[in-house]
Amino acid sequence: MTDNTDKLVIGGREFSSRLMVGTGKYASFEQTARALEVSGAQIITVAVRRVNLDRSKESLLDYIDPQKYTLLPNTAGCYTADDAIRTCRLAREAGMSDFVKLEVLGDEKTLFPDNEELLKAAKVLVSEGFTVLPYCSDDVILCKKLEDLGCAAVMPLGAPIGSGLGIRNPYNIKIILENVKIPVIVDAGVGCASDAAIAMELGCDGVLMNTAIAGAGDPIAMAEAMKLAVIAGRLSYKAGRIPRKLYANASSPLDGMFL
Amino acid sequence: MHIILNGERSEQQDGLSITGLLAGLGIGLERVAVEVNLDIVPKASYDTHMLSDGDRIEIVHFVGGG
Lengths: 259, 66
Fold this sequence. Notes:
The structure holds two protein chains of two kinds. Chain A is of the alpha/beta class. Chain A contains eight helices and ten strands. Helix content of chain B is 12%, strand content 36%. The longest helix of chain B is centred in the first third of the chain and has 8 residues, at 18-25. Chain B starts with a strand and ends with a strand. The interface between A and B is medium-sized, with 37 and 25 residues.
């Protein structure tokens, strides 16, 4: 049974869904809106880009009610702390919210974070009152530094963005979970529902994904699968799994055997 | 006057405010942010902030992203 008191708290706001979903790469805005609805996500990521001046194209926010979701603007495409800070300031002005998904990329091929620039940007943004959720490497020392700087959560990658490789180093995620007090959200790498469940069973506070849903054969069905996987993984984590044992342990009683 | 609007050269009338610029482009004030020469202009100043020849203006909004 779902525990209604089991809330995710980030930046003083409570969320009942632990699945965060991106809004990129869908076939249409209608599909985006439907997938978000079915996923049950309350936090959705968006990117900050130039307005199309000919106004011939419709806008994402024509399809999504910003009152219904907490918009989490990202700094995708930023390779320096300065660019990421500039993007966050614009996002706050456009969205009237302090929440930002801070990513500072180091390389186009891997899209791995440039952690040095990330720390620089996080420091400035926290001082300016932003609620900073940084996409970062699965490195506990880095995560502790981000926590010490005042970030509202850490979002270590499970695998490269869009790769669908799953949680490549669950032990690193586990170490992060044991050593930081702020929410830990796996961001990037999830490919299918079991990946999301694994992240949650490790004890993560949430999972953020985009491509796994938008790129699925049926994005709406995958959105539902992810919703259920995150709920199942969380319940499984809270329930406490049995220890792994090398040999069998019979489930039926030996007493009363008649053979 | 000439301004650079979202990276492209654009001819605009003199004495134009940001409110006037956005109205001319058919862009609503909600959920956009405007930067003039790398400084963000708060929405409260859109009426009074007059653009100057050579200004570099960025008008941004939210799009789909992960």
